[in-house]
Structures are given as C-alpha cells and as structure tokens.
Write a structure and sequence with these properties.
398 residues; alpha/beta; Aspartate Aminotransferase, domain 1; Aspartate Aminotransferase, domain 2; 7-stranded mixed sheet; 4-stranded mixed sheet; 12 helices; 38% helix; globular
C-alpha cells in the first residue's frame, strides 16, 4: 500500500526538530554535525541570526505579490548579483532546476532571435546532474533518471567527461552552446579542471556558441570563490544558481550577459512564486554575509585545513578511502567500500554526509565551520573508517 507521502525518497529513519550553527538536533534528542548542509544549501548553517532577522522582518510585512508588479527586493538582489559577477541581468525562480530551465530556454532563444532557430542543441557531459524536470534530466543524460518517463527531450548531446576532442567533434550546425558544471556534484565531486574551462570558453568564442554554467552546487563560496569559474579566470554567458543563494530558503536564479539575454523579452518566460519578497529578503541577507570582507578567506583557510586532515585520514585508512577530491568545502571521499556503508557509519557516530556517483561520499559543510568542528568531524571519520576496516577481518575470523 502506498504511503500518504509519495515514496520517491529512500529516507534515513531520523527526523530533525531544530538546528544551530553547523549542528542538527533530532526529535529524539541526538546531536549531529552536518557535513551535508541540506546538500550544499545551508551555507550559513542553521538559525543564522542575520538570516532569521531578515526573514522574520519580511514575514511581518509581505510574503507574496506576484511578478505583475515591481518587487523592490528583486531589484536590489539583482543589482548586487550583477555587481558581484559577470552578469548584466538576472531572472529569479524557485529552484536550481528552474534556473537551468531558464538557461536552456535563453540559449535557444538567443540563436532564434539572431535568425538561427536551427541552433537549439546543447552539448553536455556524461555524469552531469542538472535537475529533475523532463528537460534537465535529458540534459544530464543519466539513464537512472530518464528511465520510465517516455521519450527523452530532444536537444542535448552528451560527451565523455573531460574529453575535449569528443566535445569539439560534437559541435555541429545545430549547436547552440555548452552546458556544464565546473565540478560535478551528484556525479561524484569530479572537477573538470580550470584549464578545461578555459578551453571551453575559447571554443565557444571560436564557434559563436554560448557557455552555460551550472553553478548551483559550486556557487556562493562553496569552492572558496564566489563562483567556481572565477578560479579559471573566465566568465560564462549564462549561469544557473540556487542552493546557497537562499541559505535554506527556496530560491534560484539565471544570470546572463546582455548579449545572451537579448531574446528574452516580455512574455517569453515567467514564474508565479519566483523572486517573492520572502525569498529576496533571505537572498539579500545571505549576500550580506558571503560578500563581507574576510568571509571567503575564512572558507579557503578552513577548507585547506579540512583537506589536509582528510588526506591524513586517507593515508591511514587506505583500505577504506582511495582518494580525496574536490575544491574548497566541496569535497569527496572516493571509497574502496560501498559509499552507503561509509555514510551510514558516519551518521551512526553523529556526522551527516551525502553519497554521490562514482562511489563518493560528499562532504558539504556550512561555510561557517571552524577548526574545532573540523577536528570533531575528522575524529568521527577516523573512527568510522577504523570500524569499517576491522569489520571484514572480524567477519572472516568467525
């Protein structure tokens, strides 16, 4: 018999009732150090006083009006995002999937407005994850997400991860652009590499294509820069963002240059809830903190410390951890045992993490963590790895 709640998730048997900083507290009183961050969402942890104040102040005034009218918070947040990035304009939605959908539409509309409606295809990379709508699962191209949902939405050409020659061969007369994550998250914390991003930018310029970046998971300081592409010294034409933008409140956005967005005129796209006053109040509050002097320096400092400690753990537990990879506070443990076993062992000891493709355990902590919390996490990881390494030998001795 089906449950009242549609069973599309395989959920751990635990529920949380409150959070503070990087910690979550369950309904049964247990405390967990959260290195999953709502899957890279809660960049400022839980109940951050500045976010709480912004949300409650706005909640007492106005929640929703619709986009039939001006929304001052949208105008403010858009101006700040434009000032901090490559972009000239911003569209607000409710999620990462919506941000990618807008990006796809914008790339197609750009060419149509130039008299090139045949240019609608986007080249994407195998192992990518761009969302759960019909178009975004087609863009990701992963069979496990496509199966059972009918014909795949047309217009996406997947190439092998990191294969620049295959990507060049995929460019044809119908190609509109390249849609890519600088670091694959769901795909297993797989960085494309900054040189590769520079090559993509040059390739798009050479062929008149748009470079569309999905920085939903890599954005808002997660890698130590405001956005990951900054490490490569390049800029995209269009970029989808979400997750950290709302610090836990649902909000996404599509950023673009004036040139790339030229075809998106009145009536071409819209959203009922996107950019409502509540979301904009929180988004502006997140930017207050993330753009403050010293914030990204802290992220890089604590990320280097965490990476160093994880490398020591990997050296110590070579039968469990094969490699540590990623950038900033977007790190992955490549496991030699099932990653689900590692996730479960960590959770049993009070540390939350997230599984990913390629047998990876993702570590995506709030960006506000300090060295004391890193040491707490490392002690748990060390203990869990030790227990997992001992278990097979213990079983074999029976």
């Amino acid at each position: 018999m089906i449950t009242p709640l549609l069973p599309t998730y395989s959920r751990a048997d635990i529920a949380f009732e409150r959070g503070e900083g990087p910690y979550l507290y369950s309904t049964t009183g247990e405390r967990f150090l959260d290195f999953g961050g709502g899957i890279a969402v809660n960049v400022l942890g839980y109940t951050h006083p500045h976010l709480v104040a912004a949300l409650t102040a706005q909640a007492g005034k106005l929640w929703h009006t619709s986009n039939l009218y001006r929304v001052p918070g949208q105008e403010q947040l858009a101006e700040r995002l434009v000032g901090a990035t490559f972009a000239d304009t911003v569209f607000f939605g409710n999620s990462g999937a919506e941000a990618v959908e807008c990006s796809i539409k914008m790339a197609r509309k750009y060419h149509a407005a130039r008299g090139e409606p045949q240019c609608y295809r986007l080249i994407t990379v195998e192992g990518a994850f761009h969302g759960r709508t019909l178009a975004t699962i087609a863009a990701g191209g992963q069979k496990k997400y496509l199966e059972g949902f009918g014909p795949k939405v047309e217009g996406f050409d997947q190439v092998p991860f990191g294969d620049h020659e295959a990507l060049k061969r995929a460019i044809g007369p119908e190609t509109a652009g390249i849609l890519i994550e600088p670091i694959q998250g769901e795909g297993g914390i797989r960085p494309l590499g900054w040189d590769y991003l520079r090559e993509l930018r040059a390739l798009c310029d050479e062929h008149g294509l748009l470079l569309v970046l999905d920085e939903i998971q890599t954005g808002f300081g997660r890698t130590g820069k405001l956005f990951a592409h900054e490490w490569a010294g390049i800029t995209p034409d269009i970029m989808a963002i979400a997750k950290g933008l709302g610090g836990g409140f649902p909000v996404g956005a599509c950023l673009a240059t004036e040139r790339a967005a030229a075809g998106m005129t009145s009536g071409t796209h819209g959203s009922t809830f996107g950019g409502n006053p509540l979301a904009m109040a929180v988004g502006n509050a997140v930017l207050d903190i993330v753009l403050a002097p010293g914030f990204l320096e802290h992220v890089n400092r604590i990320a280097n410390y965490l990476r160093q400690q994880l490398s020591m753990i990997a050296d110590k537990h070579r039968s469990i951890i094969e490699d540590v990879r990623g950038e900033g506070l977007m790190l992955g443990l490549k496991c030699k045992v099932a990653n689900t076993d590692v996730v479960n062992a960590l959770r049993e000891r009070g540390l939350l993490s997230v599984g990913a493709g390629d047998n990876i355990v993702r570590l995506l902590p709030p960006l506000i963590i300090d060295e004391t919390q890193v040491r707490e996490a490392i002690a748990i990881i060390n203990d869990a790895c030790g227990a997992l390494a001992y278990q097979p030998a213990k079983d074999a001795a029976k």
